[in-house]
Amino acid sequence: MKNFKKIAAAALGLTMLVSSAAGCGQKADSGELAEPEIKADKEVPSWKADNSSADLSWYINYDWFAQEWGVDLSSKFITEDTHVNITYMGGGDEKLNTMLASNDLPDILTIGGENPIVKDAHKFAYPLDELAAKYDPYFTEHAAKKEILNFFRLDDGHIYGYPNFSTTKADYDGGMIYGDEALLVRKDIYAAIGSPDMTTPQGFLSALKAVKDDGFTDAGGKEIIPFGMRDWGSGPSVLDQTLENFIGVPSLTDNNEYYDRHADADTLVWIKTIAQAVREGFASKEMVTMQSDTKDAIVSNGGYFAYFTENLNGDPDSLSLFMKENPDKAYIAVEGPKSTMGRSRALRGAGIEGWTQTFISKSCKNPQKAIELVTYLVSEEGDTVMNYGRLGETYTLVNGVPTLNADLLEIKQSDPGLFEKEYGLTTHLWLQDSARLSKFMGLDQFPTSLQQPKEWTQPYLKPQFELSGLDSCLSTEANRNNEKIKQDWVQKCAAMMETEDDAEVEALMAAHLQYRDANGWAQIVEEYNTKIKENIEKLNP
Question: Could you give the number of structural domains in the chain?
């Protein structure tokens, strides 16, 4: 996955491939769905009976996306089974909006679940349940999870988008779910300074000071930076969500209403602590503007003592490279910031909303082959091929559990970039069931450099399904105000990292809260609470 986010790819263009004219399920000239040319069976997925082929385009709405289909082993296996060949396309919101405005859409679209566009899916996408009823009832009967279908059903009674990484209560009850947030430290330096308690503000700062005073160096001989965090990208997510999760700031009130986490006193204490670390030279002032490649280079050289991240899955290449060259110095997760008010840590666990949603557009040249592909990838059979490949070729069954061949597992864990490029197993993410993968593969699904941090997260995970889709539900006005408020938060956080004392941090936080109040915050919270209530009703039908 890291290669996706590491590579800033140029847009691949809007050219659509023309699908095979002989394929089943193509739209009739009138725009109506054609009748299926095979007899659909709710007990047998249609891809097993439909031998027609199709070339489909699949758009991923992320600028950094640059993966190719048909190059790696996994996508080749998928095409062999489904007779669907994919042309991947990447881009951002501007490109997506242009395509929507011109009604010139690819066959399949994957969009971030938080994007407000998803609530207007009825305008550009076929209902998946209708396509399934006509062409592939196995999708709703067996492949898709019933809890997910119920949760994603819109007011018109239809399901338009299916998520990846969606995790249900039943998945949590089954265990093997891992988090993505951690405070990592170089274990050699941590041991050298006495394995200090970094859970309190004073202990946190004292550990960073000890590192600075002792003059440790990285693999290139440069002075160690005591503290760093994941590059900000579109915002300082480590400074709000991850920090607040670490210190257990609640997300809901006792009445199941939205809790104002930024205004919490504990949040302010720890933001002041990190601002003080910057002030005292324990962190680089450039971390606010640091680019991803620069951060990766520092981690690859072991240049941070402590590295705070909200996205372990986004860091395997740099962490793995350092571990491979310096196994005795590798980064490990430690306890890190805790509440000063006695609250329990509550890390973000995968939610039922997942990460993205995938749609079949109304411009799709061959809706039948598209829903067959979706059914395949969502089903356990297709998911197994996507993640493990072919039985006897790339994996075996050990006590009924699919297990990658030892040579492939070694590459996956030691060189995730090469594994993605050559084999692609587990890397075609857009309809992946991460809970199913965890159930079978456990920690082995991750590079070795992530296994200890991932295992560390498990006891602290707290799913909050009630908060799913809050931003995507906002009205146009509320969404516009929310974007302005988020931008102000980015600016205020950046300014907090350049303050001379705690009083300036407090003043900046107060200014942000005032800005919110003056820009429609009350309406945003009201709409959040409406969505929370709807979520609770869907979760408890």
Answer: 3
Closest CA to 283 of 301, 303, 300, 268: 303
The band of 287, judged by pLDDT with boundaries at 50, 70 and 90, is confident
- State whether 189 and 148 are in the same domain: no
User: Does residue 134 sit in the same domain as residue 222?
Assistant: no
- In terms of Cα–Cα distance, which of 12, 90, 30, 18 is closest to 54? 18
Which pLDDT tens digit goes with each residue over 390-433? 999 999 999 899 999 999 999 998 898 899 999 999 999 999 99
d(CA 6, CA 67): 11
Of 348, 364, 382, the position where a domain reaches its end is 348
Which structure tokens are listed for 106?
A: 């690819």
Residue 453 CA: distances (Å) to CA of 36, 425, 458: 49, 22, 9
Distances (CA, A) of 326 to 101, 265, 321, 364: 52, 40, 8, 50
Phi, psi of 234 (to 5 degrees): -90, 0
- Whose tokens are 């399934």? That residue is 132
The DSSP bridge partners found for residue 55 are 85
The one-letter code for the residue type at 421 is K
Q: Are 337 and 198 in contact (CB under 8 A)?
A: yes
Asked whether residue 46 falls in the same domain as residue 160, the answer is yes
For the entire predicted model, the pTM comes to 0.81
Which pLDDT belongs to residue 28? Answer: 44
- Are residues 24 and 153 located together in one domain of the fold? yes
Whether 289 and 366 map to the same domain: the answer is no
* Per-residue pLDDT, 10: 30
**Domain co-membership, 233 together with 152:** no
Instruction: Identify whether residues 30 and 151 lie together within a single domain.
Output: yes
Worst-scoring range by mean pLDDT, 36-50, 178-192, 231-245? 231-245
Query: What is the per-residue pLDDT across 25-75, written as a single tens digit (0 to 9) for each?
Result: 455 444 689 999 899 999 999 999 999 999 999 999 999 999 999 999 999
Question: Do 186 and 267 fall within a single domain?
Answer: yes
CB neighbour class for 522 (10 Å; exposed up to 12, middle 13-18, buried from 19) = exposed
- H helix and E strand count, the chain: 22, 11
* Least-confidence region, from 70-74, 172-176, 358-362, 518-522: 172-176
Give strand pairing partners of 331: 186
Alpha-carbon distances, residue 403 vs 177, 309, 406, 443 (angstroms): 18, 30, 8, 12
Q: What is the pLDDT of residues 325-341, one digit of tens each?
A: 999 999 999 999 999 99
192: tokens are 């050298």
Percentage helix, strand, coil for the chain under 3-state DSSP, each rounded to 5:
50, 15, 40
Contact 464, 351 (CB under 8 A): yes
**pLDDT (tens digit per residue) in 477-516:** 999 999 999 999 999 999 999 999 999 999 999 999 999 9
Beta bridge partners of 223: 217
Domain interval for residue 271: 182-348
C-beta atoms surrounding 51 within 10 Å: 9
